[in-house]
Amino acid sequence: MSILFHILKKEVFMYKIGDFIIYGNQGVCRVDEIGIPDVGGILEDKLYYTLSPVYSDGKIFIPVDTSIYMRPIVSESEAKEIIRQIPNIEANIIESQNYKTTEDYYKRLLSSHKCTDLIHIMKSVYAKRQAVKLQGKNLGHTDEKFKKIAEELLNSEFSMALDIPREEVHQYIEESIKKLKREDDRS
């Protein structure tokens, strides 16, 4: 019997071919294959997921037992519930002048891989932009960088979950929140 057969017999896979998952901070990826890729430098006694990033080119070969964070993308109903929570997600303005402190704060939020933490980053940066604008200053590069990362990750995941183009996610969220507000006002 082949090595692959013995490995397959022992393994229980968390994901199946065709699944869409969040892989680290890479964002949404599709599971294309599970097996031993025909690529140099790959250990032949391990099984790998072959992932295709949905919004960028390339292939990722990652052992099925990797320690890198992976999870299924949120469902449509989960995305809609998260959108309903947005008005209640608070912003924290990081006052530190030390970019490393600010960067560590945003990295910690990103590493949770939660959509609500991505929204927290975006709302925090927006609030900070408004605050520094009143002081006649500009927002720092670190804040802008992490806001962009958070937006790209959230928009990519919600695009897949809601089956809408990525560039329409922001508008979809705004319209959903306005609709919720109108419904609350009528209650």
Automatic annotation (TrEMBL):
One Pfam family, short name: CarD_TRCF_RID
Gene3D superfamilies the UniProt entry points to: 2.40.10.170, CarD-like, C-terminal domain
Transmembrane segments: none
InterPro entries in UniProt: CarD-like/TRCF_RID (IPR003711), CarD-like/TRCF_RID_sf (IPR036101), CarD-like_C (IPR042215)
Residues of the CarD-like/TRCF RNAP-interacting domain: 14-126
Protein name: Transcriptional regulator
Organism: Aminipila luticellarii
Lineage, broadest ranks: Bacteria, Bacillati, Bacillota, Clostridia, Peptostreptococcales
